[in-house]
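Obj: model holo form, ligand = magnesium ion.
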Amino acid sequence: DNILLKSKFRGCMLGALLGDCLGAPFEGETMTAGGKLILQKYFDKLEGPYFRAPIKTYTDDTAMTKSVAKSLIDKPAMDFKFLAKLFVKEYFSEPKRGYGQNVIDVFAKLRRSKFEDVFKPAKEQFGGIGSYGNGGAMRVSPLALYFHNNNEGAIDAVTKATQITHTHKDAINGALLQTMAIQQCLKLDPVEKINLQEFTDSLIEKMKKIETNEEDFEDDEKPYQVKLIYLQQILKSNADCDVDDDVIRLLGNDISALGSVPTAIYCFLRAQKDIPGIRTDNKFRRCVQYAISLGGDTDTIASMTGSLAGAYLGEEYINEHIIKHCEYQKEMLEVADNLFAVL
Ligand code: F2R
Ligand code: MG
Ligand code: MG
Ligand code: MG
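Output (holo structure tokens):
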């Protein structure tokens, strides 16, 4: 019903914000056992009785998500020149949010070219290959929500919104996979357990339709399907101690879309059950804490994991103390409500 869906919109947007804000201090780190204990205490403290503390600031992940949401709210028919201008305006007003170097170059080119063809600068990057970074996937939440009942609309809008900065197939397909995963979460009942096999089989089916149009079906032409099969295998293996190493080795924890989107989906699904070393009864927290505990691109993986967890569980499952530590939390609720209102 409408009340649940509205809560899921809020949960998804707050989850994306919280993962970014809490994950950012750990970006680029390798997490040791000691590091994971520090992380447990960090969450315990933030979740405890509210205390005044320096605010946890958001990074490029949220900065770009804000622009995607504004674009949808102001012009729901999607105007990609408008979106490109919002990205550029946001970047030049606050450049120190930890953006990737490629997107910085694209923004400079967009501004210099007066936005004549907003898809041209990104196409020229990396000798014409385009960026395979996770910058497209990390900002899709608003699009996944807005187009939750419109599969074709979602595919078209996510593809183009990604292509403003990222034209590599892996970047686009990673953004599409994250979109479809969020949309599946919206359809789940938060009080019912997730059928992990069904959830992942359904993503594989959808990626089969996206990773086609190639001459041959060689392994490296369907990389996301390969990753999703690894994901299923790791989920099924119940050995606990070395699993994190397998996750990092087989799924990745880096800034590429291919090395992070399947990981975020894995974190969300794995955290539906207890995880050794993560002491909490709160499922939402378990998802985000687990994502950060893998190290690497922690803000982005935790943000993508958080948006999935929030879209499944809804706002009520997010601890009210913890979210108060995040910059922009009040505004993000309004963003979610405005997105819901333009449906
Ligand atoms: N950039 C970071 N984190 C590292 C630096 C942190 C920052 N300097 C700080 O001080 O805190 N985080 C943010 O970037 C990731 C999203 O990146 P996005 O938007 O995809 O950027 P970009 O520049 O397009 O790609 C990232 C880098 O990947 C490499 N790369 C991409 N495509 C490539 C290709 N075809 N060939 C070779 N290399 C490629 C480049 O090094 C890109 O700069 C998120 O983690 C966000 O949090
Ligand atoms: Mg970031
Ligand atoms: Mg483990
Ligand atoms: Mg990051």
